[in-house]
Write a structure and sequence with these properties.
This protein is α+β, with helices and mostly antiparallel strands and about 90 residues long. It has helices at about 1-10, 25-30, 60-70, 75-85; strands at about 10-15, 40, 50-55, 75. The radius of gyration is 13 Å and the shape is globular.
């Protein structure tokens, strides 16, 4: 659980639909200011959400991560933490 908390403390880790990556407005948000990010494409069937990591230490990335969460992007550390609590 400490590793998950450390990940969540350092990054916004969000699940985004595959289609988000082909939206010009979304890509402009990522690329126009040189926002640092990592895109993690899971080895899974097409249409499966991909993960976006945005470092909280970068002001633009942190603001984008917070906005995406408020807009409904799935919070991966929160989800994984809830699975652990369900098993307890």
């Amino acid at each position: 659980m400490a590793g998950l908390a450390a990940l969540d403390g350092a990054f916004h880790v969000l699940a985004l639909p595959e289609e988000a990556w082909s939206q010009p407005q979304f890509m402009n948000l990522l690329l126009s200011n040189g926002t640092p990010y990592a895109r993690i494409d899971q080895i899974s069937p097409p249409g499966t959400p991909e993960w976006l990591l945005l470092p909280r230490a970068d002001a633009a990335a942190d603001a984008l991560g917070s906005a995406l969460r408020q807009a409904g992007a799935a919070d991966i550390p929160g989800y994984l933490g809830s699975l652990r609590h369900q098993r307890s």
